[in-house]
Amino acid sequence: MKREEIRMLGVASVLALAHAACGSGGSSHSTQGLVCPGGTGQVLNATCTPTFSQSTNTPRSIQVTFSGETLGVAGLPFQPVNQGDPVFVDGWNVSFDEVLVVLGNVRVAPGATEFPVQSQVNGPVATMAGPFVVDMHKPSGFVGKDGVEPAGAIFVWNSQDNGQQFSTTSRYSFSYDVMKATYPATQINLTSDQFADYDLMVQNGWSKLYRGTATYVGTCNWTTYPQGDPSGKVQTLFSAFPTTIHFMFGWNDAASMINCANPDFGSDENVQANWGVQPTDSGAVIAQITLHVDHAFWDILKQEGAPLRFDPIAAWAPANTTAASPLDLRTLATKPLATTFSDGLTPIPDRGLCQNAPGYSESDQSNPAQVTLNTNGVPASNLPGIANFMAFSAQSQMHLNANGLCYIVGQQPSDPYYQPNIH
Q: Where are the domains of the chain?
């Protein structure tokens, strides 16, 4: 295809070209840089041993790694380890047992900064189809791109698909997909006891699966709550919440992350000059696929740093959840964004105002007497319930090299907007 023709391609056409170049299935990967054998039939590969490490430093190579960052590993405590970390303002600790994500159609293309529109890219010169399933909760082997977080290896490109070396003077767009779970697939860091969860993802058509535990540790003094509770009803309903909730949240938010910004080139992720990856003669460069686990719990869509909330979820949790019988995200599928207790009538107020939550002294709610999850311009018809709201928000959690923002297909009205479908 001529370069002039490539320039005219829109998002959908570029993605179709990339998919066609990649193929599909764990058994059809290019042999270059594949770290593990793919699964066959309905079975994942039993083991996975990376063929490169933190010390591997091949010039002009691109090492593709993954990380859920420190928060994906250590969780989201109400009293954060580091100042400025996201917290559940309503008083919950949340920890994770696994954060499974299916990745694939990883690709690089020359000319990352050629076009002013981030979603416009040239045809790929190196591709890796996947699907790969990774557990973002337990990456290992690498120090992540922020210098602290753990990361793990997926594969390495030592050359383009045609065998030519990567240029050291060209900035390559880096793009990848979150994919619906299918067989065959290559598991990167799962243990055999997690294979059943991947099978569950395939059965339900999910692309992500969170398992974890939420524990209420707040110290809300209701007598000083700004909204008051003269009848005592709200306090009674809050007191009925389980203080420990085991959860399993699975959904399909399959999407393309296009031409990601790279913090290696500057801290402003929205600047065109910071897009892409650039190989060097001095050694390997890393392209770390990064997941920000907190996005699924934001109370406003498409706003970095939004407060996290668990009360709207806890309101519908059974009394005695266990790891074997957790709260299922599908329970929340039709629960209203203007949140209520499980009676369906009584509004849930902003309990963050009486928790002494770190960094939270003034409600972000227009009506603190009822927490309302803010769609921030996304049509309410796209989000018929709390589970759908969470899935839409989670679609935005994928990045490059820690904080690099990608163009995420489905997060803009022109794409059009992603419409969650909780199965």
A: 3-408
